[in-house]
Amino acid sequence: MNSATVVSRRIRARSGEGERLREEILTATEQLLLELGDDGAVSVRAVAERVGCTAPSIYMHFDDKTDLLFEVCSRVFRALDEDIAAATSGLAGTLERLAAGHRAFIRFGLRYPEHYRILFMGKPILTADQWADLRLSGVAGFERLTQRCQACIDAGEFAIDDANLAATYLWSAGHGFVSLRISKPGFDWPDETTAIEHLVHANIEGLRRK
Length: 210
Hints:
CATH superfamily of the largest domain: Tetracycline Repressor, domain 2
Strand content: under 5%
């Protein structure tokens, strides 16, 4: 890349100070995260080079690299609610809606492995302060999962009457499957679609009233 190109890119970034520059930084970070497949390889310097700005410009918008990465991931996970809403739209049965939402969560995690790894598989000491467990559970659709479990309880479908317990069980089971698929790619995994269907069915059957 020649110096003229760098100057041109920096001028565009400067003219977008504020929300526009912040958006460019987030977009560049996500691109690097997906390209490199490793959050450890995504540096503030690399993001600055991709945007065409200086590292101090990034620190004007984000406290540090962790803050930046978590904001990128949160934007992706906010789309999870949209995915689940689309998957459950038009379904009348409470169990149908629960299964569709459970399935959507699992598929979402597998579609965005690096984002998932950062938010749910990283060391707690690396978690930014603003990403407390309660907020994470909301971002990951836990609150809506609890509501769908409560609907099943109200309809007499479940053998237990604790929606939080049911949601925690389903969330944990889904997380276990996603995290293992992400962390053990070399394992001889069964067909993904078949495995997900069996998992969803078994998880929900385990909660149903016999």
